[in-house]
Amino acid sequence: MLRVGGLTPLSTTDWPGMLAAVVFCQGCPWRCGYCHNPDLIPPRGEREIPWDDVLSFLRRRQGLLDAVVFSGGEPTLQAGLVDAVREVRALGFRIGLHTGGMYPKKLATVLPFVDWVGMDVKAPFADYAQITAAAGSGEPALAGLQTLLASGVAHEIRTTVHPALLPDSALTALAHDLAARGVKHYVIQAFRSQGCANAALGRSATRERPLHDVGEQFADLFTDFSVRS
């Protein structure tokens, strides 16, 4: 059974253009300082929702929602993800997935049942540990990105930008690297303090240059590029 740490009944932002419910999967191996869902990091949550209750809710929403997005935490951490996705797909919903790509083999097993992926790329891959606090985390993340790009599944790649963790020069270098690897759809999004447990990051989030101005330097590298505030 999938371990579910939360459920959003309706979202218009977790899969742009879709009316979706969001299933928040419990557990994540990384410790990103700017995480806005820190309660989902431990492998077990204090207020988990039984999977059967999630399915009952979704049955009542058939014909009212377009899709279900599996978010986290990190959904591919859980062995029950593929079965859960298949159950929801059988109800007639389209399937979205949010992932950090850190389990590329598990990602490959679920992609055939997924319609869209939002993948977070944290930083230049050599510098990943500065964000994730997990040594060597850039290597599997890069493999996850390559797996996604090779699959042909619709997706967006996005990067959360905190000025103290990802300077403008590093963000620009990352954008050029992603474009060279074949990324066509890229989003950069400003850090938001809501839900973040690290008070110091909240205090140091003031930017010297607007994020839109930075994005203009590499927007032309991508077929589809946007900045989310």
Automatic annotation (TrEMBL):
Sections of the chain in a coiled coil: none
Please indicate if the UniProt record lists Cell cycle as a keyword: no
Q: Which keywords describe this protein according to UniProt?
A: 4Fe-4S, Iron, Iron-sulfur, Metal-binding, Pyruvate, S-adenosyl-L-methionine
GO MF annotations in UniProt: 4 iron, 4 sulfur cluster binding; catalytic activity; metal ion binding
Leader sequence segment: none
Q: Which cofactor does it need?
A: [4Fe-4S] cluster
Domain of life of the organism in this record?
A: Bacteria
Q: Domain Radical SAM core: where?
A: 14-229
Q: Which Gene3D superfamilies match?
A: Aldolase class I
- Record has Transmembrane helix as a keyword: no
InterPro entries per the record?
Aldolase_TIM, NrdG2, Organic_radical-activating, rSAM, rSAM_sf
* Name of the protein this chain belongs to: Putative pyruvate radical-activating enzyme
Q: Which organism is it from?
A: Thiobacillus denitrificans (strain ATCC 25259 / T1)
